[in-house]
Design brief:
Blueprint: H1 2-15, E1 18-24, E2 27-33, E3 39-44, E4 52-53, E5 67-71, E6 80-84, E7 90-95, E8 104-106, E9 121-125, E10 134-138, E11 144-149, E12 158-160, H2 166-181, H3 185-193, H4 202-210
Antiparallel strand pairs: 1-2, 2-3, 3-4, 5-6, 6-7, 7-8, 9-10, 10-11, 11-12
Helix pairs in contact: 2-3
């Protein structure tokens, strides 16, 4: 039992998405997504940090492999949270308390439904310089998909921009390769000469065969 518990905590620390938010001059709160679901809160007001659990600030358990991302999504001065789920959805909670004593309230209007990916891991930032937070979502397949905030600083609405994501790049390189295989050698050479990027790892496998 002790060994299993140790392995669980190891994976939570390595695989869980870490979100850190300062809530006072010398205080910081750390959120760690757990592989078994939920996100635990720890706080420290020392340097070097000595973390202590603050269960009253824990995030609700939404699924296994929770991945939290913090940001002020309603422009009220405290940090709200998006949580990635194992099945791919993004669940949202507004903070109706404070950064020191948060009170998490579900906000379905801010959420992203199932996207066809697994183990989604959100990250928030202003990607287009318009003053509101946009969204990047990593996943278990190793790709990252962007979502533009087409709402506002206080009422986000996520609009997928697949052409700018790494999933689109993989689809383009795969479709180009498939078209080349289905046509004549001359057409295949033309397809390879286009500006479509090579598939990840393709050059490495080719060089390995050459050796």
């Amino acid at each position: 039992m002790h060994c299993d518990r140790g392995r669980l905590l190891f994976f939570a620390a390595i695989l869980g998405v870490l979100s850190i938010t300062p809530h006072a001059v010398h205080a910081t709160t750390l959120y760690i997504g757990r592989t078994t679901g939920g996100s635990s809160a720890f706080t420290s007001d020392s340097s070097p940090p000595v973390w202590r659990a603050v269960s009253s600030a824990d995030l609700p358990n939404v699924a296994d492999f929770d991945a939290p991302a913090l940001g002020d999504l309603d422009a009220d001065g405290d940090l709200d949270v998006l949580v990635g789920r194992e099945r791919g959805e993004i669940i949202a909670f507004s903070n109706d308390g404070t950064d020191v004593a948060p009170r998490w309230v579900r906000q379905t209007a801010w959420e992203v439904g199932r996207t066809g990916i697994t183990r989604s891991a959100p990250a928030l930032g202003d990607l287009d310089g318009d003053g509101d937070l946009d969204l990047l979502v990593g996943n278990g397949g190793g790709t990252v998909d962007p979502y533009e905030n087409t709402g506002s600083r206080s009422a986000p609405r996520w609009t997928a921009r697949p052409a700018a994501g790494t999933s689109a790049r993989r689809r383009r390189c795969a479709s180009s390769r498939d078209r080349a295989r289905a046509t004549s050698p001359r057409a295949a050479r033309r397809a390879r000469s286009r500006s479509v990027p090579p598939c990840p790892g393709r050059r490495r496998r080719r060089s390995a065969r050459a050796r």
